[in-house]
Amino acid sequence: MKGTVPEARASLNDAVRAIATARADPEFREFLLGLIKEYPGDYITMLRHTWHVGEEDIEGFAKAERLRGIHNTQ
Q1: N or C of the chain: less Cβ packing under 10 Å?
Q2: DSSP code of 2?
Q3: Are the C-beta atoms of 65 and 58 separated by less than 8 Å?
Q4: Distance between CA atoms of 41 and 47, rounded to whole angstroms?
Q5: Contact predicate 36/45, CB 8 Å
Q6: Domain boundaries, the chain
């Protein structure tokens, strides 16, 4: 099976069943993790180096910068 990708698209139910099976079956888990590492591995690696910034983060940063400015002028 290595090197082949099935033509049919999996449903979300298929993905949930695969994860549930991987939790219970160590051999299936190793197979699934191997496929994930081989095919979308670059994408997963990229996600580890990505930060998601929200409105609350921006407000906190702005507040910290204002406070730093106040402390630097005293």
Answers
A1: C
A2: T
A3: no
A4: 10
A5: no
A6: 12-73
